[in-house]
Amino acid sequence: MTQGRASGPQTLIGVGVLAIGVVIAVGAAIIPAEAGYAGVGPNFLPWLVGAGLILCGALVVWEARSGGFRNMEAPSGSGRGYWPGFAWMSAALLLNAALITTIGFILSCTLCFVLAVRGLRSADAQGSASTRLDMGQLLRDVLIGAAIAAPVYWMFTKLLAINLPGLTNTGWI
């Protein structure tokens, strides 16, 4: 980007962030404002996020219109998207959404983690022979995914009393 010149795409990004903030703020206005625990109502967080996005969007628009993003480094990585990596990441998210009520939160999020990591690794190793499946790495990914998903599940279900889909009715898996 050349310094000192306003950029249309940069302005569009700011307008997009601003619009998302406005949509969230409008949604927050629909949520009842009755105070709950500690005097904070259910609309507090959406209002906070909406206000933050509106502020960030306005700052991005101002920055873009007053000369563009200054001292911006050239983008790193490939000039084109890596579609196999995108497919792995998309499969991770879609399967998580489709399976969470069937196989439970922990297993679904573990699968999501494993597939997402596979996508990131394949994108990082584009064109090299290291994209083949390594069973040791797969087992590590499964264990790491479960080590992340299980405490999150237990924190939500046991400490916060928020029901997440489980594999059994015990509340532990």
> How big is the Rg?
21 Å
Give the number of DSSP strands. 0
Spatial shape:
flat
Please give the largest β-sheet: none
Number of helices: 5
* Element order: H for helix, E for strand: HHHHH
Strand content: under 5%
Structural class: mainly alpha
Task: Estimate the mean pLDDT confidence.
Answer: 84
Distance between the termini: 51 Å
User: Helical residue percent?
Assistant: 55-70%
List the uncertain runs.
Answer: none
Nutshell version of this structure?
Helices cover 64% and strands 0% of the residues. The protein is mostly helical.
Structural notes for this entry:
Helices cover 64% and strands 0% of the residues. It is mainly alpha-helical. α4 crosses α5.
Q: How are the secondary structure elements laid out?
A:
Blueprint: H1 8-30, H2 44-65, H3 83-103, H4 105-124, H5 135-159
Helix pairs in contact: 1-2, 3-4, 4-5
Keywords, please?
173 residues; mainly alpha; 5 helices; 64% helix
